[in-house]
Structure formats: C-alpha cells, structure tokens
C-alpha cells in the first residue's frame, strides 16, 4: 500500500467525524472493518474520533461473501448496544449497514450511522465525495416530500425499463422516504459516504414491470445488460445472454429470497462519476437503483442473506403525474 495515502485519509476522516456525523466529546464511536478494508481508513477515523474528545472502538469482522453478507458477528452486535455512532467500513460486505439489529437501533433512534461499506479510498475522495452536502440534503428532503405524497412511482429508461411501484406510507427511522445525503447528526439518522439518494421499500406486492439493467450491480461482475420481469413484488423472469444473467440465475437457485424487490432509490449527486462502481453510480443524479433481497433496513420483513443494488442509467421518473426526472435530467427547480 502507498503509505502517503494516509495524508488524504486523515483529511477525509476529520471531515466525516466533525461535519458529517458531528461527533461530540464523550460519545462512543464503533468502527467496523474487515480484512479487505484499507487500514489507513479506519486508523484515520479512529484518530479523528479521538481528536474531538470522543472514544473509538475498532472491530474487525470476517470477510463475508454471499453467505451471511448482512450478518455482523455476535460480539459486534452486543457492542452496538453501547455506542452512539456506528461507522461501517467493511470492504467485502455491507454487514454494518444491512444487519437487522442496526435497523432496529436506528428505528429506535438509539444510534446514528454512516455506511462507507464496499468502497475504496478513492470513493471517499473523488466524484460524489466532493459534492456540497448541505445542498444535497436540502434537495433530498424536497424530493422525499414529493415522493411520500404520491401514490405511485413510475420509472422508464431509454434502454427499455418500464416499472412501477406503490408508495409505502409507513415511516422508517421517522421518514416515509429515507433521505441519505451524507449527513447523520441526530440519533436515528443514517447516511452513506459518499452519498446522495432518496429511497424506500415499495408497497408490499405492488412493484411490477420490466427492468432493463444497464448499469453495475452489487455482487455481479460485468456490465452486460439484462432484463428482469417483475410481478407482485418479485422477479418472475430473467433474460439476456450474458455473463451476469448466468451469475444471477445461480444466485436465485441458491437464494430464492433474492427475487424480492427490496428497494427503489433515486440518485441525487451531481458530482458522482460514471466509473462502473455501483456505489458511486447509484448516487448519480438521474440514475435509479432497484435492489433485490433483504428489505429489513427499509422497514420490511423480508429477510435474505443479500441486498443487491442494480443501477439503471438516466431514468425518467414520475411521482403520480409529476415528472421528476426526464432521461436523467432533474425537472424540478433545485432551489425552490
Ligand atoms: Fe439505496
């Protein structure tokens, strides 16, 4: 590893701890990493926590593949009961973000959390990381309000997606539509870094239509487009000749629960790069992601060992009759 990267990691960590999480003196911050995490990241975070007069605990959990990808270790679950802030920096899995106990503690507003999972240091320093997060939060709140007032969301893309879902009206972590715009300063707030999206779990059994996945997918290698047909909230058909279809067929065989449509999310970050990385691209202004698998984080009851985001490029999005995006271009006044 290039040791000089610690310089950039320190500046980033200070920004995260002071600005994005507003960590206060005396608070307890749990940082969860795995063997694939770049060490500079969690060392810099720990140092920054200490520098503001708070206490860090760093927990190293096993590398998780497809199996139990949303499970923390039992001792880490116990530790969560004692902390004010959780920062997940695991590289191999999203366990600190998608673990059921984390969702419960957020819903009870006992912790706040920042998800930096499944990323490299570059993701934290370039592209979406450089956005104005105060402006992003304001846009996120505005879009979330419009979405939560609608009955149905409809998504189309030039690649052929034509998908719709009913709007869930029950709040999760106090929000009908979850705003994740990089800031988590109050108990119950959850954000990622880098960030910039609003999302929710579709109303049970209502998502339907055709998804033409032309962007990256968490957990799948390659970029060949494929088609998913969705009926009553679950994938009923999979089509396309490429490598990703074969990978996904295998996943559906071993984990049938992965057919469940868990989440619809809308990217809002104007600085996100188009670099093939699903975490970066799903946050890009005008991209949409639809996730397969577990919806526990989104207030649902569907348990599954995975939660995989699938990115759709440059979407047109309607909230009932309101055209929010046209081919990826925001159609409402950002500053209104
Ligand atoms: Fe999302």
From TrEMBL:
Taxonomic superkingdom: Bacteria
SUPFAM superfamilies, sorted: Thermophilic metalloprotease-like
An example molecular function term from Gene Ontology annotations: metal ion binding
InterPro entries: M29_Exopeptidase, NicX
Swiss-Prot/TrEMBL keywords: Aminopeptidase, Hydrolase, Metal-binding, Protease
The protein's name in its UniProt record: Leucyl aminopeptidase
